[in-house]
From TrEMBL:
Transmembrane segments: none annotated. Gene3D superfamilies: Electron Transport, Fmn-binding Protein, Chain A (2.30.110.10). This is Flavin reductase domain protein FMN-binding. PANTHER family: FLAVOREDOXIN (PTHR43567:SF1), FLAVOREDOXIN-RELATED-RELATED (PTHR43567). InterPro entries: Flavin_Rdtase-like_dom, Flavoredoxin, Split_barrel_FMN-bd. Its cofactor is FMN. GO terms for molecular function: FMN binding; oxidoreductase activity, acting on the CH-NH group of donors, NAD or NADP as acceptor. The keyword Flavoprotein applies. The keyword Flavoprotein applies. Residues 10-155 form the Flavin reductase like domain.
Amino acid sequence: MKISLGAKTLAQPAPLWIVGSYDEDGRANAMAAAWGGICCSKPPCITVSLREERHSYASILARRAFTISVPSIRFAAQADYFGIASGKDVDKFAATGLTPVRSELVDAPYVGEFPLVLECALLRTVELGMHIQFIGEIVDVKAEEDVLDEKGYPDAAKVRPLIFTPVTRAYHTVGEYVGQAFEIGRSFGEKS
């Protein structure tokens, strides 16, 4: 029997992404964000939602660009720190020892050590309430060669991305392989 938990942000999992931007002084900054996902296939777009008071908010609007760096489990503590400290007060890259890399395609930095990066041009914003949704067109995806599968795509088991559980505020990573999407359910449509 299911129990009502009320209207809460309990969808699971949420990604733990590091959103990169340059602030008004041109300093590389990044913040942790979990409210995001793919929102369009053509053009390829993702969305991330931020609060207006966040240091990154004005930077993304001003530069019309941002990056998404996907941290692996190896960098869990550093990624968490990006969500604890504010770029107004501290250089998070210097504090964590991570490297800001200037994108050649958009006006934003990404985290050099993280295995997967999406470079995005800001298409539009949507006011939702407490958060503003940034919709970015993906202009390029960069991945470390050792996290790619035999077809040249990122393999979740090799990337080992961090995922976030809202409300309980816990980090996890991906688990076991279950099956191929759009294949394992075919038996329900077949006639016996």
